[in-house]
Design brief:
Blueprint: E1 12-16, H1 23-41, E2 48-51, H2 55-69, E3 75-77, H3 79-89, H4 91-98, E4 106-107, H5 110-120, H6 122-125, H7 136-153, H8 160-167, H9 177-195, E5 197-198, H10 200-211, H11 215-224, E6 227-230, H12 238-249, E7 253-258, H13 272-278, E8 284-287, H14 294-307, E9 324-329, H15 332-348, E10 357-361, H16 366-378, E11 383-385, E12 390-391, H17 396-408, H18 418-428, H19 434-444, E13 445-446, E14 453-454, H20 468-480, H21 490-502, H22 509-532, H23 536-548, E15 553-554, E16 567-571, H24 572-578, E17 582-587, H25 619-639, E18 641-650, E19 673-675
Parallel strand pairs: 1-7, 1-8, 2-3, 2-6, 4-5, 6-7, 9-18, 9-19, 10-16, 10-17, 11-16, 17-18
Antiparallel strand pairs: 12-15, 13-14
Helix pairs in contact: 1-2, 3-10, 7-10, 8-9, 14-25, 15-16, 17-18, 18-19, 21-22, 22-23
Length: 676
């Protein structure tokens, strides 16, 4: 392995280890070595470029680096944030290279991307752009995801039809669908280029196909960065690997960490095999010892043998599996109660604290999430759900602000009902209870398509039934709603309404999170509407409809760093991406077939865009991929539990069907059972 003779730093290093083996800590120690070099040579500290897989991982790694180095400067990014920053920074170069004119670019949020693409492709939906059993909205999302996957792999959209045609066989499918998808994406790309709109697909394609190969841009990279640190590259797309190869060719000191049992984002754009083929072989290899975990050391081999059916005649030693227990019930409702009761009893006996417990499921439906929250919180046990996204339309405060808009701006009367007015009254003023709000909306709300109004409370003949407090609060809302407010932009109006009615209520984190997301969405929507030349009325109506459809979501729970002692509830994907660990894990719905399937963590046709793809996307391939996925996640999860794993089964799933997943055989090995 070649060393830089001027500074003694290894120029290329590949650090490999399983979950919790200390890869990130190793990266931090290397950073400190680089920091020492900076001090000795007075070099630019911003020449250190640090990658993490997502925003949460970036923040955690940045905090650890800052603490360890005493606040030294460095550049911390995720792959997508780096692509976005570079495309915007070098946008004039891209315009010159592509010979097109455009306004300064703005980023489209996912919900805006979906809306605009659907509108653009409406004429195509009436031709061959149809997929059996898939709605137009869902098909739009699939096509946009194909664009992003192609950009991640560095493939032009013109190659998409051939890839799909040779690798996917959909029965009763229009043979022209694949060509129609390429036409749709070409239209979408041209539209975005013309309007200066950036999506993650557009950004990644511009970076990978046009910016990265450019000699001027490469010269800029060479001058700006001397050190490259990339954590968990098994979760990165192929285009990030191509970027790394260029940096290595420049002689940039580079360190990569890799988890052979990671790849949680395989199916979402990650290409770990490509990283191994291109990077591992040209680096100095450092293999970290496995995570010292008594549970994993004793049971992992047996669990893999049974779950993956590696040896049909294998008989495990019960002593090795003491840490695995079963909670088995007939119905899923009983299972949820039993799981909660086991947790409550363990915490009450002080065997464990809530923060040391994780409930992990292959998919979390609203029933399971709600039931577990209700049962545990009634016993004063806090519970937090990782990346718990809820539609903004679920928030009464958000719905009430939208209703308020319809009462102030003209020609919005068709968007408001009496029930919505009643809800608004109770949300804006706590002195108005639901009963009196209903009376007021029935008797004092005057619907009108052009200009709906709130009439004086005395309009109600029996106004004395409203109470002084409710009448006074209602009149304060009426007095605030004046024609003069129309001179304000909707963004200003939303801010004033929040300051007037909601801030005095001392809202909790969940409510504030929803309001923040509402304002951010509004600002983005008006920016896009202005860019596209929409009329103010159209922007306002489109914004209200967008929020009410439930597409826009927010996380109503504080980050885990702000919750000191809570039970963690997460899907498999969320838990693995959080890179956390717990003493006890509860594997919910262990009999479900979803444990071995990608589910929402695998995009349509994702394997076709892996660099090494060859073959057909058929049932045999799916079976092989599912088995490999199950192998990785079992090794990952078991390494993240230090004491116990509860296998939580119900004979029937939520649909009342028998569960026959790949992990069903594990219940026979448990050393203890709780049966209801």
């Amino acid at each position: 392995m070649r060393n830089d003779s001027t500074n003694g730093l290894v120029t290329k290093k590949w650090v490999q280890g399983n979950s919790l083996s200390g890869k990130s800590e190793y990266l931090i120690q290397q950073f400190l070595t680089i920091d020492k070099f900076h001090n000795q040579n007075n070099s630019n500290p911003d020449s250190v470029l640090v990658f993490a897989v997502d925003a949460d991982a970036r923040k955690k790694l940045s905090d650890r680096l800052s603490i360890a180095s005493g606040g030294r400067s460095f550049t911390s990014v995720t792959p997508l944030s780096f692509f976005e920053r570079e495309v915007i920074l070098f946008f004039p170069l891209l315009m010159e290279k592509l010979n097109w004119r455009s306004q300064f670019p703005i980023l489209l949020r996912v919900e805006n991307e979906q809306e605009l693409a659907t509108q653009l492709w409406n004429p195509l939906f009436n031709r061959h752009l149809k997929m059996a059993g898939v709605s137009n909205m869902r098909l739009t999302r699939r096509i946009l995801d194909l664009f992003l996957l192609a950009a991640y792999s560095g493939k032009p959209i013109e190659q998409i039809p051939q890839l799909l045609e040779t690798s996917i066989d959909l029965p009763n499918q229009d043979p022209e669908l694949w060509d129609e998808i390429a036409i749709a994406l070409s239209q979408w790309r041209d539209y975005c280029w013309e309007k200066g709109l950036l999506t993650y697909g557009i950004i990644t394609e511009l970076f990978g196909r046009y910016l990265l190969p450019d000699p001027k841009y490469q010269a800029s990279l060479r001058s700006r960065y001397k050190f490259l640190l990339m954590d968990d590259v098994d979760e990165y797309p192929a285009i990030a690997c191509d970027f790394s190869l260029i940096m290595l060719n420049f002689g940039v000191t580079s360190i990569f960490t890799y988890n052979p049992h990671g790849s949680a984002r395989l199916g979402l754009g990650a290409d770990p095999t490509y990283w191994q083929e291109k990077i591992e072989g040209i680096c100095e290899l450092t293999s970290l010892p496995n995570n010292v975990n008594p549970l994993a050391d004793s049971s992992l081999a047996s669990i893999l043998n049974i779950a993956l059916n590696l040896d049909p005649f294998y008989i495990p030693d019960p002593i090795d599996l003491d840490g695995f227990l079963t909670i088995e019930t007939h119905s899923r409702g009983s299972l949820l109660r039993s799981v909660a009761e086991v947790i409550i009893a363990a915490i009450a006996s002080e065997k464990i604290e809530p923060k040391d417990i994780a409930i992990i499921a292959p998919g979390l439906d609203n029933i399971a999430s709600y039931a577990l929250r209700e049962i545990l919180t009634k016993k004063n046990i806090p519970i937090i759900c990782l990346s718990d996204q809820h539609p903004l339309s679920n928030s009464a405060l958000v719905r009430s602000l939208l209703t308020l808009l319809t009462l102030i701006y003209p020609r919005l009367g068709h968007l408001v009902t009496r029930d919505q007015v009643a809800e608004m009254l109770t949300s804006l003023e706590s002195a108005i209870d639901p009963v009196r709000a209903g009376m007021l909306s029935d008797r004092c709300f005057a619907p009108d398509v052009s200009e709906p109004k709130l009439l004086p409370s005395q309009t109600y003949g029996e106004w004395y039934r409203l109470s002084y407090q409710a009448s006074n609060a209602y009149e304060q809302i009426r007095a605030w709603i004046t024609p003069e407010l129309r001179s304000l932009s909707p963004l200003q109006l939303l801010d004033r309404a929040i300051q007037k009615f909601l801030v005095p209520q001392k809202l909790g984190y969940a409510q504030l999170s929803n309001l923040q997301k509402l304002l951010e969405t509004a600002q983005s929507y008006w920016q896009i509407g202005d860019r596209l030349g929409w009329q103010e009325q159209s922007i306002l109506i489109g914004f209200i409809d967008l929020i009410r459809t439930g597409i826009v979501t927010a996380n109503p729970q504080p980050p885990t760093t702000y919750v000191d002692n809570s039970v963690t509830l997460a899907t498999i994907y969320q838990y693995r991406m959080a890179h956390t660990q717990h003493r006890w894990q509860f594997w919910l719905d262990t009999g479900s077939s979803l444990w071995s399937q990608g589910g929402s963590a695998a995009l349509f046709a994702a394997p076709l865009f892996l660099k090494g793809w060859q073959g057909i996307l058929d049932s045999d391939y799916e079976s092989s991929v599912n088995k490999q996925r199950l192998d990785r996640l079992l090794q990952d999860l078991i390494c993240r539990s230090s004491e116990k794993i509860y296998l939580c089964y119900s004979e029937l799933n939520t649909a009342g069907q028998e569960q026959i997943g790949d992990l069903i055989a594990l219940k026979e090995i448990a050393t203890t059972s709780v049966i209801n």
